[in-house]
Design brief:
The protein has helices at residues 17-23, 45-57, 83-98, 144-157, 195-199, 215-223, 231-238, 256-268, 272-284, 327-330, 357-368, 381-387, 426-429, 471-480, and strands at residues 10-11, 39-40, 104-111, 114-125, 128-131, 138-139, 179-180, 186-187, 305-307, 314-316, 354-355, 372-373, 376-377, 414-416, 421-423, 438-441, 447-451, 456-461. The chain is of the alpha+beta class. It folds into 2 domains: 1-57, no CATH class; 79-489, 3-Layer(aba) Sandwich (Beta-lactamase). The strands form 6 sheets. The protein has an 8-stranded antiparallel sheet, sandwiched between helices. The termini are close together.
């Protein structure tokens, strides 16, 4: 519901949702039901506006509004949270650094559209002792996927495609792709993969993570798909690979969102990177999100890490020995997606973006608010709500998530929407949260979630591949224990 809960409620007449975006009451609760009247704590609208202005002028530890690129900042108490309890989030970040679990970390927490916690911890890298900065640049890998899904749904809103459309209508290269069945035989698709299946990882496409034990994934590794010069060549390489199963029969984490990026490119008539810049990044004020890191920002681009298998310590990926299975992926290769961030031409909608914690918070906050930020609408609230629902059939079990793409883990209580993971029952996940939360993560340990019940957005940025640490769960505990005014029920 798009309602502000309070002791006194009054209907604000003659105020559209668009106007309200500029008036957001500093102490109220914002939820997502645009069909109901907007309500304020006070009968006096002027008082609410004054309260907002005062909140923005408060000196708070996190930063000024200017330092948060105009995302308003406030004390936790103003939005039903405890500043004292929020110190446990600071302690969490400090502990990860002290225990040398990560080199550095940036955490950001918002409630009701306001930043209540924004801190950098540690250093830029295991071999770089300079302090981590809040605006440092991170590889967000699969946190690219929700952005690509949002771009696709913009075109859906324009009537460019239907979710039931076959993917081959826009990517004819994939029309005759075969399925490798359980008997090791190639067979035709029973039905063409659809756009809905593309957005829900149910196409039969794969990633190649299990090349040591899986024939399809072996073919993916041999095709060297990330070395394609662009998305068109990428599709040509993928067209030669078999599907793991019949489209629509299972969930399997895959390159489907990279194909989605190609669909966006072809339907819009713009290069995928240009489309994102003009239709998502610029409207939302995301100045530090891109596939190719500009030379004037390269000094802020952080090194990536793995854990040394011999010592357990942090190791820069540039130091990975040749006999390590990850060496082939990390070795420096020009024009290879997710390896070369200076000259690449393959714009990976599934994992190619670089961003900052604040930039990604702008995107996540826009989605929490129903597709709008600062008066700039990128999607309808109805579309965002549809994307954030579980679209998987009851018979489908998830396997692989953004920050742990090769691990099945506990999939109870979770589902998948259009570009987002979805919490269907937090009691089954084993960690505090809310039903309806939508989220994802990246292979280097970055995580985010949007909680439409508690009106919370959380972003956490690290650079550690195959992280074994339960960062998402610990962040959830640190966030939710700081709530003093829950909006649930």
């Amino acid at each position: 519901m798009f309602v502000l809960y309070s002791e006194q409620r009054a209907r604000l007449k003659d105020c559209s949702v668009g106007k309200y975006d500029q008036q957001n009451n500093a102490s109220g609760r914002v939820t997502l039901n645009y069909s109901k009247p907007i309500k304020l704590r006070s009968l006096n609208v002027l008082r609410a506006i004054i309260a907002l202005t005062s909140a923005l002028l408060l000196t708070v530890p996190i930063s000024s509004a200017a330092a948060t690129k105009n995302l308003p900042a406030t004390k936790a108490e103003k939005v039903g949270m405890s500043s004292e309890r929020m110190k446990r989030m600071t302690a969490l970040g400090d502990r990860y650094i002290q225990n040398k679990q990560v080199a550095g970390m940036v955490n950001l927490v918002m409630r009701n559209g306001k930043v209540v916690h924004y801190e950098a911890h540690g250093s830029k890298g295991a071999s770089d002792s300079r302090p981590m900065q809040k605006d440092d640049l991170f590889r967000i890998y699969s946190m690219t996927k929700p952005i690509t899904a949002a771009a696709a749904m913009q075109l859906y809103e324009q009537g460019k495609f239907q979710l039931s459309d076959p993917v081959s209508k826009f990517v004819p290269e994939l029309k005759d792709v075969k399925v490798l069945n359980a008997n090791g035989q190639l067979e035709d698709q029973d039905a063409q993969m659809t756009m809905h299946q593309l957005l829900t990882h149910t196409t039969g496409l794969s990633y190649g993570f299990a090349a040591q034990v899986d024939l399809v994934d072996q073919a993916y590794m041999g095709a060297d798909i990330w070395a394609a010069k662009d998305l068109d060549e990428f599709a040509q390489r993928v067209a030669k690979l078999p599907l793991k199963f019949q489209p629509g029969s299972r969930y399997h984490y895959s390159i489907a969102v990279d194909i989605t990026g190609l669909v966006v490119q072809r339907l819009s008539g713009q290069s995928f990177d240009v489309y994102l810049r003009e239709n998502i990044f610029e409207p939302l004020g995301m100045e530090d999100t891109f596939f190719v890191v500009p030379q004037n920002k390269i000094s802020r681009f952080l090194p990536n890490h793995i854990l040394n298998p011999q010592t357990g310590g942090l190791m820069d990926i540039s130091q990975v020995p040749a006999d390590n299975p990850l060496a082939a992926f990390f070795r420096n290769r020009k024009n290879v997606a997710m390896v070369d961030y200076e000259t690449v031409g393959l714009f990976s909608g599934g994992g190619g973006l670089v961003s900052t914690a604040m930039d990604y918070a702008r995107f996540a906050e826009a989605m929490r608010a129903g597709g709008i930020l600062g008066g700039k609408r990128i999607l309808s609230p109805k579309t965002v709500s549809y994307m954030a629902q579980n679209h998987l059939k009851p018979s489908m079990q998830m396997g692989g998530i953004g920050e742990q793409p090769t691990t099945d883990g506990n999939t109870s209580g979770v589902g998948f929407g259009l570009g987002f993971g979805v919490i269907t029952n937090p009691a089954y996940t084993g960690v505090i949260g809310s039903a309806g939360e939508f989220n994802w993560g990246g292979a280097a340990g970055t995580v985010f979630w949007i909680d439409p019940v508690e009106e919370i957005v959380v972003i956490s940025m690290i650079q550690l591949m195959s992280s074994p640490w339960p960062l998402r769960s610990e962040l959830q505990v640190a966030t939710y224990q700081a709530i003093t005014d829950s909006y649930e029920n």
